[in-house]
Specification:
Elements lengths: L4 E6 L14 H6 L3 H14 L4 H16 L5 H8 L8 H14 L3 E11 H5 L9 E9 L6 E6 L7 H9 L7 H5 L14 E5 L5 H9 L3 E6 L4 H9 L5 E4 L7 H39 L1
Parallel strand pairs: 1-2, 1-5, 2-3, 5-6, 6-7
Antiparallel strand pairs: 3-4
């Protein structure tokens, strides 16, 4: 019998990394401050009635051109090497995976982010994820320059990727499989075996959907910012709030391990229940035949 799969899904900015991924190498290359870039993006989006994610993707292209460098996949992946991570993130995945093995469950990690996939691919932890769902560009075949958004993920449509993970429809172009009726027996990951980790308002739709369907949602906070996520707990949109500390034996690690424990025990109970039912049905069928 295949091992039960537990999926841990992460936002990226302010969840695995302390700041927006653009705030590192990219904005430094522009020679402006993060506040300046994001203020310009907000003003531009408001002026043109533009969706916020598309606005920042457009502004990255325009500002790079103005500064005299090309926004290429290679450039963005190199930017990923400059992105800082929270303490403990570099060893988090191996520790959690090993814990899953000790309970005979398979742990899978996923990113669902409104940031850029190509920057995340350049980070040291990119190899840890079964899939990275983030915003992507179409690149010119000759110049290799970003010329158009090929995928934009805003705060609301993040939720589609929960269903993709659940059904094993990881190709974001596959509309048929993600929208097809799928029984629990045929799902790759059940919602009750999902753990969503985010940092707040931008993750609310995913957090609430996971929690409503029996999974767990955790809102992380940085130093002195706990009050920002407490309303999510009081409004029952999440299960827990926790400091963004991924180090061994941190409160976050202890909570996630308890969630994995719970999923593992539930799967074992349901397996025992199903086995018992099957055995009784077989016995009753045999008695009737005799």
């Amino acid at each position: 019998m295949a091992k039960p799969v537990i999926a841990i899904m992460y936002d990226f900015d302010s969840t695995l990394s302390p700041k927006n991924m653009q705030d590192y190498g990219f904005i430094n290359d522009l020679g402006i401050s993060p506040n300046e870039f994001w203020s310009m993006t907000e003003e531009f989006g408001a002026k043109h009635n533009m969706e916020k994610i598309l606005a920042y993707m457009y502004m990255m292209c325009i500002k790079a051109k103005e500064k005299g460098f090309l926004l290429t996949r290679e450039y963005l992946e190199n930017i990923g090497k400059t992105v800082e991570l929270f303490k403990g993130v570099d060893t988090w995945f191996s520790r959690i995976n090993e814990y899953g093995k000790s309970l005979n469950v398979e742990i899978e990690h996923y990113i669902i982010s409104s940031g850029l996939t190509d920057i995340i691919r350049g980070t040291s932890i990119a190899k840890e994820f079964k899939a990275i769902f983030g915003c992507e560009y179409l690149y010119d075949e000759e110049t290799k320059e970003a010329i158009w958004p090929s995928l934009a993920i805003n705060f609301t449509n993040k939720t589609q990727f929960l269903f993709r993970i659940s059904k094993g429809a990881l190709d974001h172009r596959d509309d048929f499989k993600v929208n097809s009726a799928t029984t629990d027996q045929n799902r790759h990951v059940l919602f009750r075996n999902m753990i969503y980790i985010g940092d707040g308002m931008t993750d609310i739709p995913c957090m609430k959907l996971v929690k409503q369907n029996g999974g767990n949602a955790i809102a992380l906070y940085q130093t002195k910012q706990r009050e920002k996520v407490l309303p999510l707990l009081l409004d029952e949109r999440i299960n827990y709030v926790c400091a963004a500390d991924y180090q061994a034996n941190s409160p976050l690690e202890k909570i996630v391990k308890m969630m994995i424990d719970s999923c593992s025990y539930m799967e074992r109970l349901l397996t025992k229940e199903a086995t018992q039912l099957t055995n009784i049905e077989r016995k009753l069928t045999k008695d009737v035949e005799e």
